[in-house]
Write a structure and sequence with these properties.
Elements lengths: L2 H21 L13 H9 L4 E4 L3 H14 L7 E5 L7 H15 L3 E5 L6 H17 L7 E6 L3 H7 L4 H7 L2 E4 L19
Parallel strand pairs: 1-4, 1-5, 2-3, 3-4
Length: 194
């Protein structure tokens, strides 16, 4: 990657963070500017599931849209939902997720506030992801991005978030925000499908 391209990407991310900061009344703390351009670019190129931990829901959404917009899926739809709005029942969750996968058609689906997902919905989502992996459906080409404003590891330790689901969502993990550690974009395991 050229130095000029990296500088332009960093400037663009900082500009978006500043705009978001102004829109949020000064509460947003330039989460995007804290991420290394290389981490964002690597995350955008990968088809792997992505977990974004940021200081605000707006920062999660902005970063997810940015990663979608500069990656190979940019010409396809970006679909969003909040985990708290997903149905709890297994069949209803499958139906809802099938609708999102069809709507995204090769693009990205952002499920924000995953920490709000009830345990029954977490179990159903694990089953759904396993089914997508084994079936290798065309909708499996959709990239799943999950977002949270809390430490899911803390939730796993407290027993309120499924460890199995955490490791299915946390293939690449970007952390941004005040007091957050430097971004850690890493592949945890080979990607199969989303």
């Amino acid at each position: 990657m050229s130095s000029r391209f990296a500088s332009e990407q960093l400037a663009s991310l900082r500009h978006e963070a500043q705009r978001l900061d102004e829109r949020a009344g000064g509460q947003e703390n330039h989460a995007l500017a804290l991420l290394a351009v290389e981490d964002v670019n690597a995350a955008s190129r990968s088809p792997a599931r992505l977990l974004i931990t940021a200081s605000t829901p707006q920062a999660v959404e902005t970063l997810a849209r940015r990663i979608h917009g500069i990656g190979p899926r940019a010409q396809f739809p970006f679909v969003m939902t909040c985990a708290g709005e997903l149905p709890i029942g297994a069949q209803a969750l499958r139906d809802d997720c099938a609708r999102f996968l069809d709507a995204a058609a090769g693009g990205s689906v952002l499920v924000s506030a995953v920490e709000e997902m009830p345990s029954a919905a977490q179990d159903a989502l694990i089953d759904l992801l396993a089914g997508l992996e084994s079936a290798r459906r065309p909708s499996a080409a959709v990239r799943l991005i999950s977002g949270t404003t809390v430490s899911l590891l803390d939730r796993v330790a407290a027993g309120t978030f499924s460890e199995r689901l955490f490791y299915r969502l946390n293939i690449i993990h970007l952390v941004a925000g005040a007091g957050a550690p430097e971004s850690h974009a890493h592949l945890r395991a080979p990607w199969r499908c989303t």
